[in-house]
UniProtKB/TrEMBL annotation:
Keywords: Acyltransferase, Transferase. Signal peptide: none annotated. It comes from the Bacteria. Residues 6-151 form the N-acetyltransferase domain. Its EC number is 2.3.1.-. It comes from Falsiroseomonas tokyonensis. It holds the Pfam family Acetyltransf_1. This is GNAT family N-acetyltransferase. It is an enzyme of class 2 (transferase).
Amino acid sequence: MTPRIIALPRDQRHRLAPLLALYAAEMRGVLNGAVTAAPEAQAALLAAHPVAEVLLAEDAAGAPLGFAILFDLPEVVFARHCGMLDDLFVRPEARGRGLARALIAAAVEQGQARGWSHLRWIVPEGDVAAIALYDRIATRADWRSYVVRIDPAASL
């Protein structure tokens, strides 16, 4: 059966904790060992955040398989909005089944319904597998990404 993708309500975002733990562990390697928050704290932040939206991929029994975190942003140049895909993760044993593509497609559908000019995201240069997928399904942007590190403990 095909996994389904749902918009995860705030009061259910605690369900992400197991996926967030896997995601943080995987990203520590990509992010040079950066210290990450506990999964429960991450899920609580998403539950309390006033504009974060979460798409959840789940199996037929309702077990979480992956997620995408989205933000609706103003796009001043076009006097419209755009979407920002902040995080995307699929549990390792569920990869290769098109879930990342399906999560991105669901984000694009939301964007079409909202009149977004585009959907954008950033990815760490060290995340080779993600970059390989994104190069197949999206166009690399002409923009550079920069960061001002405010908290050294949250280094990327």
